[in-house]
Predict the structure.
Amino acid sequence: MGFPEADVRASTGADLHDPALDDLGVRLHDGGGTLRIWSAHADAVELVVFDDLDLDWIVEVAPMRPVGGGVWEVSSSALVAHAKYAVRVDGPHGAGMTFNPATLLADPYARGLVSPGIGSWRSAVVETSFDWGDAAPPRTPWDRTVIYEAHVKGLTKRHPDVPAALHGTYAGLAHPAMIDHYHRLGITALELLPVHAHTSEPRLLQLGLTNYWGYNTVGFFALHSPYATAAARAEGPSGVLREFKGMVRLLHEAGLEVILDVVYNHTSEQGLGEPRSSLRGIDNRSYYRQHDDGSYIDVTGCGNSLDTSTGAASRLVLDSLRYWAEEVRVDGFRFDLAPTLGRDAEHTFSPEHPLLRAIAEDPRLEGVKKIAEPWDVGMGGWQTGNFGAGWSEWNDRYRDRVRNFWLSDIDYARRADTTPVGIGGFASRLAGSANTFSPERGPLAGVNFITAHDGFTLRDLVSYDVKHNLGNGEEGRDGADTNRSFNHGAEGHTDDARILSTRRKAMRNLLGTLLLSAGVPMITAGDEYARTQRGNNNAYCHDSTLTWLDWEHAAWQQDLFAHAARLIRLRQENPALRPVRFAHAEMSVPSASVIDWYDETGRTMSIDRWTDASHRTLQYDARSTPEHEEPNRILLVIHGREDGAEVVLPELDGVSRYVSLWSSEDEHPREGGEHLAPGSIVTMSGTSMQLFRSE
């Protein structure tokens, strides 16, 4: 198309701090704006500007010039706020090269994206000014953080007290009715499923389904416009950004943090031959992991993997994080398939990867929470516990052990009249997973969870033995087959009062364990009210009442909410339950919890008790080593068999009485306050927990 050829061909080195990579995207100035695009292998690049109303009508075409370091640049009076634009890129043919000078491509740094049709995108220049008032990030300490994982649309779509115009929107998340819910429950942070601009795969659209969860990113700087109100969408991407910032401001004013689930490991361009919307057309060879012949190395299971061994790809991620933290003021990030970001040029994971260290240590991201999903599907992809300082991680070992203890072990015992393992592994998870996270990182390196957006909900976990995913259009092949769930005697819906009662107690045990364990707890939105997806453990493709939260609740669901709220409050009131550091056997460690373990007789746990598979009763004594709070001590009694047990409360130095705080045996939490003397006998029903404060 007659573009001027580059006089140099840039290197694809991995220096993400290369100053040539500064100021990519559009920067506004007097007389218009300047666009900078990086492509190491391009021969020519041009800017295309569109009519404000007709996104297929080109009003300006301008060639971009190479300025060194693989960067192409152009200034134009048409690049003003709200302008819509794209780029076209030409280059050589060969292995891994997918240039097509006819393809309109989105700017990877675009702050806004609009679509004139399926699979087609236009970048938008966004007006970013916003009045933040006096709102400041809450900066909630990690030990006091309670995360609430939620989907923007699903959380408010059916809420009767949120105005219809705000249903399923960014603004709806910060409506007073929602803020009241967050406060009553006690959570401190909303972790939002992807809000970056995303799209549905053609395969799903052909099935009449959609990528509801949003793990199919089009752009790392642009918001997903369909989550905005109709009024904001009518203003365009600038209005959508303003609404999102307004949500952040209101949540900050309410003392709540906003954490974004971010998908930097792959993009919506999928595999070769699939949509070419941005990176693939700009410089496929540099942005995606490939073999020498150009075939993709897919460690994400999504068709492509971002190649963070190149400086430009790593810098794209880092610049995106800086934008969301500085310009939009979000409080943290949860990194989907994080090991992909830490793979080198040989595709091997290293916790010292320059990008991972930059994310943890960048002064511009100081105080921002960083949470890794510590696995992908490539070789060596399971890395739980291996991320370095500055990172927290989803603790799947915690999830699996706790599910085993309260569910699959109980199922096994019903059939075999014995349990497969004792209580030792469960105790390790309860105390902060010191066998997974180093002493230097401590218990707060682990984000504990029982459920998440993928997998069974809490209610389905105690109601189904197997997944029921036929509605996903894959004949039940998708979704995990190993769920460590237990239906307690009937698959799915039942009217059997005994089974229903047992299921409710199982949910209380699971929530109790989660919220009383050392580490950072994460609750999946709706679990506090026992939301069901009718046994679907991979509901990513359903934008419907199956996945939207129901806000009309039966009395037993309101009781479960009361338990969750009570447990969160007790966690905040008792620092012994939320240590910052691991204790040390030979010295006092500030802000740790010194832990001792006792059996049902009130005696110190013996080696035989720890290793006996049939022994499932434990008393967990934790006393804080205060640094900023008053001294505190708790006793948690756990009984993991379906037959009852009598437990003798231990006689401990400095303890004159135990004050009852919570019991999973109660359908509705009692106010507590019952005083018991050391040596008292407590009768535990089958599979139950009781919490006491030691005084």
Observations:
- Residues 1-13 have pLDDT under 50 and may be disordered.
- The two ends are 81 Å apart (CA to CA).
- The domain at 588-694 is CATH 2.60.40.1180 (Immunoglobulin-like).
- DSSP finds 15 helices and 24 strands in the chain.
